[in-house]
Amino acid sequence: MKKTAQQFRQWPNQAITLLGMSGVGKTTLSARLPRESWFHYSGDYRIGTKYLDEPILDDIKTRVMENQSLKELLRSDSIYIRNNITIDHLHPLSCFLSKIGNPELGGLNVDEFKRRQNLFFEAEIRAMADVREFMEKARRIYGYPHFVNDAGGSICYLTDQECWSNLNELTVVLYLRASDNMEKTLIERAGRNPKPLFYEEKFLDRHLAIYLEENNLTSTDEISPDEFVQWVFPKLINYRKPQYERLAEKYGHTIEAEKIFALPEQADIIDLICESMS
């Protein structure tokens, strides 16, 4: 059952889960909640530091071993490699996901790309299952009364009923809906700086086939990694949007994302959340 605005205001341990495309304002909203009382749980950070830490390091070490000088240093334990992932700096995770396409242009072949996608998705499920534990830790160990779950953009693909029931029980689920203008901005940003993305496999297979046909290519190894991301990103937005909307309808509420950037104070953020719940 969805919580009401009155219940949320009276809740001594307020907790929210944020849904929406990357760049729509989830981290911005989280950052505008007072750090002294709100624990910021990042799903992507948990994935990178806990569940994909070893695969990320294995990938980096594999590349290092291609250099003879560094290979000897690594094998003799003269150097060591570790991740330095932060909530604001998830670059190692992004590099691990990588992009599909021509290996000479930094892309991955389709089998390796899908292997990493599957690892990421399994890690995302586990990271969302960890929310209950981290809420308890945040209060018991660190003394944070309130909790924000900054979920990744691909959480809309999670179909586990238990996962969503838990998130609905533990938090107020909020979908940050982008306006047409914001969507345009996100698409333009992806065009200037195409980043690795997670795709549901049926979406990926269908759009790879379309892209290959439209560009007269016979293999995914001929694809320009950046150009594919630029081409597919608007389609990904349109594909995810109804999934977010269904989740918000069933489990949560919707906030117009543009409103977030005009609200600098905690009270205003809480008012905006409650407004979405009424």
What does this structure look like?
The protein is α/β, with parallel strands linked by helices. The chain has a single domain (5-273), classed as 3-Layer(aba) Sandwich (Rossmann fold). Helices cover 55% and strands 9% of the residues. The chain has helices at 5-10, 26-31, 43-51, 53-64, 68-75, 91-97, 110-129, 131-140, 161-170, 180-192, 201-214, 225-251, 266-277, and strands at 15-19, 38-42, 146-150, 172-177, 252-256. A 5-stranded parallel β-sheet has the order 2-3-1-4-5, sandwiched between helices. The longest helix is centred in the last third of the chain and has 27 residues, at 225-251. The chain is globular and about 60 Å long.
Mean pLDDT: 93
Beta strands, count: 5
**Beta-strand content:** 5-15%
> Number of DSSP helices?
13
Q: What is the alpha-carbon Rg in Å?
A: 20 Å
Helix content: 55-70%
Global morphology: globular
Biggest sheet strand order reads 2-3-1-4-5
CATH level-four homologous superfamily name: P-loop containing nucleotide triphosphate hydrolases
CATH class term: Alpha Beta
Assign the CATH architecture.
3-Layer(aba) Sandwich
Number of domains: 1
Instruction: Catalogue the unreliable spans.
Output: none
Euclidean distance between termini CA atoms: 14 Å
The biggest beta sheet is recorded as: 5 strands, parallel
Structural class estimated from helices and strands: alpha/beta
SSE run:
HEHEHHHHHHEHEHHHEH
